[in-house]
Amino acid sequence: MQERVLKKQDIIKSVARRHSHFGSFLFLGRNINYPSALEGALKLKEISYIPAEGYAAGEMKHGPIALIDEYRAVVCIALKDKVYEKMISNIQEIRSRRGKIIAIASEGDSKIKELVSEVIYVPQTEELFSPLIAVLPLQLLAYHIAAKRGCDVDQPRNLAKSVTVE
After folding, report:
1. HEC profile for the chain?
2. What is the pTM of this model?
């Protein structure tokens, strides 16, 4: 399944190119994919230096909704799972505020394409394993945005990676 996502590099790179100018990003995920949203935001901050926040989509009306406008990109993890319809509701709220939406969606989801212009499809999998698939396009999106902005993706500034043994 990961190989199918990796084969979408050209699509992800195109989406990144069209969104690399945004000054901030919001990543939204629900339930088991809330941590995926956090990871997407973290990777974008680490390697592109763009302010990004990850939020639980169910909490959108408790603050993050105030940030949404036509100058912020919003990445929505909207996979076909038990919270899919709630995620669609979030997307409709974002659209009404002119947010620029990038959806991470399940292959075969035609409904999402009616709501957003930017979709990165991932293979459908068991819900429990979906974060393992959803995180790949998020990391690749961050990579391609950083590369487009001329950032050193191999040695991001101010980050020290170290392992200590106690």
Report:
1. CHHHHHCCHHHHHHHHHHHCCCCCEEEEECHHHHHHHHHHHHHHHHHHCCCEEEEEHHHHHHCHHHHCCCCCEEEEEECCCCCHHHHHHHHHHHHHCCCEEEEEEECCCCHHHHHCCEEEEECCCCHHHHHHHHHHHHHHHHHHHHHHCCCCCCCCCCCCCCCCCC
2. 0.92
